[in-house]
Write a structure and sequence with these properties.
CATH topology: Aminopeptidase
Helix content: 25-40%
Shape: globular
Strand content: 35-45%
Number of domains: 1
Bound molecules: coenzyme A
Number of strands: 7
Order of helices and strands: EHHEEEHEHEE
Structural class: alpha+beta
Distance between the termini: 34 Å
CATH class: Alpha Beta
CATH superfamily: Gcn5-related N-acetyltransferase (GNAT)
Radius of gyration: 15 Å
Strand order of the largest sheet: 1-2-3-4-5-7-6
């Protein structure tokens, strides 16, 4: 039923609608276009299949740096949450990154973002650091979380 494919410029309107519903400081079109143009970045959109032309429900973006997957975005539209869709996106992202040689995932998250922390804990992420007042708009710290992608790494 669900369709997962690399984000293209044609997906941006649907993606930006979800972004606006999910984040206080959403990325704009130019930021996404710049991100998607990077050779070390990837993005995947989850949507319901045709004929539902407006079926985007969530996405994941990450960079591959120094053999690590750096998660830059994961979001599911509010009305589609609680159905395992972020988990599906995260698994796909981690499988893709593993196939491209990544051995670990790193990300930053607000300590108050309980749904995201629940998601990351479920997948075995552990806190490895804390960046003081990382989020300039609120002065909140960022927790730095990590998990390995391979048993032997
Ligand atoms: C975080 C987010 C992506 C989760 O999306 P989702 O599709 O609802 O998540 P899933 O249904 O796949 O849940 C997977 C796991 O995450 C955890 N989780 C999800 N929602 C949760 C909540 N409200 N409270 C606590 N844990 C939660 C649970 O462990 C869940 O596993 P379970 O269903 O077996 O208990 C979604 O809430 C979102 O888009 N938030 C806004 C954007 C955001 O904050 N992104 C992360 C930035 S770091």
């Amino acid at each position: 039923m669900w369709d997962l494919h690399p984000v293209t410029a044609a997906d941006l309107s649907a993606l930006l609608d979800i972004e606006a519903a999910c984040f206080d400081r959403p990325w704009n079109r130019d930021v996404f276009l710049d991100e998607l143009a990077r050779r070390d970045a990837a993005g995947y959109l989850l949507r319901r299949p045709a004929p539902d032309a407006n079926g985007a429900v969530g996405y994941i973006c990450f960079r591959l740096l120094y053999g690590e997957m750096h998660l830059t975005k994961i979001a599911v539209a509010p009305q589609w949450r609680g159905q395992g869709l972020a988990a599906r996106l995260l698994v796909h992202g981690m499988e893709t990154a593993t196939a491209l040689g990544a051995t670990a995932v790193l990300l930053q998250v607000r300590p108050t973002n309980r749904p995201a922390l629940g998601l990351y804990r479920r997948f075995g992420f552990r806190q490895i650091g804390r960046r003081k007042q990382y989020f300039s708009e609120t002065g909140e710290d960022a927790l730095v979380l990590m998990r390995h992608l391979k048993e032997d790494s």
